[in-house]
Structure formats: structure tokens, C-alpha cells
Amino acid sequence: MATLSARNGTLAVRFTRVEKVFGLLRDHDYPLSAVLSVATEPDGLGAVRGIRAPGLGLPGVARIGTFYSSDGKTLASVTRDRGAVIVRLVGEKFDRLVIGADDPRGCARELNAARR
Prior knowledge:
By secondary structure, the chain is an alpha+beta fold. It contains two helices and nine strands. It has a six-stranded mixed beta sheet with strand order 4-8-9-7-6-5.
């Protein structure tokens, strides 16, 4: 499962080896100044919209990779029965990050605290 963490003014997104292989992903770092908002979504799969290219999309099971929609470009790693943290970015390669988490509210709280 991917992780989000904030340290030294940077938001770090770290993917597992499996996510990197199936989603054709790599780890990313973003300045906290590029973070517009951090929110949670109880239905992580439902939060990912658009056309997948590249990545893995198993309906009702997992969405891992890059997704393009009218909302912009989304980097996602979510699975069934797991909530997600949604991070909106500005001036970066991706417009949104949708990352599954065991405790999305706790993760969002930590990220919002680091932005202050």
C-alpha cells in the first residue's frame, strides 16, 4: 500500500514494489506549497475517474496508475474496501493524488498539520 508523508516542506508519495510494477509508477515528491487541499473519501475506488493510461484497473477491485479526465491528471493507488486521501496539487505533473489508506482521516490530519 502506498504511503503519504510530509517532512521538511515536502510531500512524499511512496509506492510498494507491486504498485510500481502493476501501475507503472515511481515514487514522487512535491513541495507542500503545491498542495491546494487535502481531503478524505470513504470510497477510494469511486474517487478515481477517467481513462487509465498507463496502469492497472480491475473493476471493483483496484485502480493503480495514471488516470486522465476532465478534472485533469490523477495519480492513484486504491483498492476495494479502503478509504482514500485526496490531495489536490497546483503547478505539478499531476492535478490530483488519490491514495488508499487504512486511516485516511489521520493521514489527512497529519498532512494538513504539516502544511501550516
